[in-house]
Design brief:
Length: about 200
């Protein structure tokens, strides 16, 4: 009598099921018009990588699915001699490229290191141009004012979050908030080590 080896049948069925599921998910992505953030990230990276002051650029993107939107993330490292003018050029060129040729269903984000990872800013799309210009003025001034600390600025359309960490000296936070470009028309939320400061409305 012939013998059926069920130990071989089950893995084979599992492989067929996995292949069928993969084709189904891929087909659904095409059918529903899901966006892919990787090509968008590459497009934006190509625009900013030739700008003055830019040392290196990397692009990373994820595809949209039923649960999450597509993401296009561009990381920029500026040279040691780059300043406010070069930073403004990068932020505004990225924002213009997102506005003119981007897709609304892709979440765009840019992260910029100014000289080192201890002086950095990030922004998402749909931010007022004046706020980005303010970031370009504020970041180098803040990093110079708190030399030796870790500084990061995060801009969204309704707030700016500032983190200043590992400070070795007491800081006059109100004086820092008076630096050019520091204040926004929205909520300014600062964390200096473990202390939180707020200006504006939620």
């Amino acid at each position: 009598m012939a013998r059926t080896d069920h130990g071989l049948v089950r893995p084979a069925l599992g492989i067929l099921l996995l292949a069928s599921l993969t084709v189904t998910v891929t087909g659904c992505g095409v059918f529903f018009g899901f966006d892919d953030g990787a090509p968008e990230a590459e497009r934006l990276a190509a625009i900013v990588e030739e700008l003055p002051g830019v040392e290196s650029v990397t692009a990373d993107g994820t595809a949209q699915n039923f649960e999450y939107a597509a993401n296009a993330h561009v990381s920029v490292r500026m040279g040691a001699d780059a300043g406010a003018a070069e930073l403004e050029g990068v932020l505004l060129a990225w924002q213009k490229a997102v506005t003119d040729g981007g897709k609304d269903r892709i979440r765009n984000q840019i992260a910029v290191e100014l000289g080192s990872s201890d002086c950095a800013a990030e922004a998402v799309s749909k931010i007022d141009e004046d706020q980005l210009k303010g970031t370009a003025l504020f970041l180098p001034a803040l990093c110079a004012a708190v030399d030796g600390a870790v500084v990061s600025i995060s801009d969204t359309w309704d707030r700016r979050e500032v983190f200043i960490g590992h400070t070795s000296l007491p800081l006059d936070v109100e004086q820092l908030h008076a630096l050019p470009g520091a204040a926004t028309e929205h909520l300014d939320y600062w964390r200096v080590d473990e202390q939180v400061y707020r200006w504006g409305d939620d």
